[in-house]
């Protein structure tokens, strides 16, 4: 049963989202599907030092294979009814979809912000060797 269906136009091909992470092509190629095997989770921190501490803890806990800490950027947002402007570092966290719940709990428990940004996007295409490495590094066995 399809719980939700959204049509996407991509390179003149229509796809329907059949589940949260599976796309099936409509048309002449029945059975062609794309399953997302990796997600990229984003969170921000106020300092590079906070980013390094959080990144090391995430990787050590095997919740991700790699965390990149980007240089400072300016974030503009509303907090407690006022527009704020702060320098932040964006962390790009490469992990598996099945690590999401544990990673969210870990970031929430170890982050200095009251409400940390925790957003995931699906990695549409991943090289085979990189995905194999990611799975090996994050394995709990």
What does this structure look like?
The chain is an alpha+beta fold and 141 residues long. It contains three helices and nine strands; from the N terminus they run E-E-E-E-E-H-E-E-E-H-E-H. The chain has helices at 48-60, 100-110, 128-138, and strands at 7-10, 13-17, 22-25, 33-35, 39-45, 66-69, 73-79, 82-95, 119-122. The strands form two sheets. Strands 5, 6, 7, 8 and 9 form a five-stranded antiparallel β-sheet that branches. It starts with 6 loop residues before the first strand and ends with a helix. Mean pLDDT is 82; it is low at 1-34.
Short description:
By secondary structure, the chain is α+β, with helices and mostly antiparallel strands. Helix content is 25%, strand content 37%.
Summarize the main sheet.
5 strands, antiparallel
First-to-last CA distance: 34 Å
Structural class: alpha+beta
What is the arithmetic mean of pLDDT? 82
Please state the CA-atom Rg, rounded to the nearest Å: 18 Å
Low-confidence stretches: 1-34
Continuous helix count = 3
Helix-strand topology string? EEEEEHEEEHEH
Based on Cα principal axes, name the global outline: elongated
Strand content: 35-45%
The count of β-strands is 9
Amount of helix: 10-25%
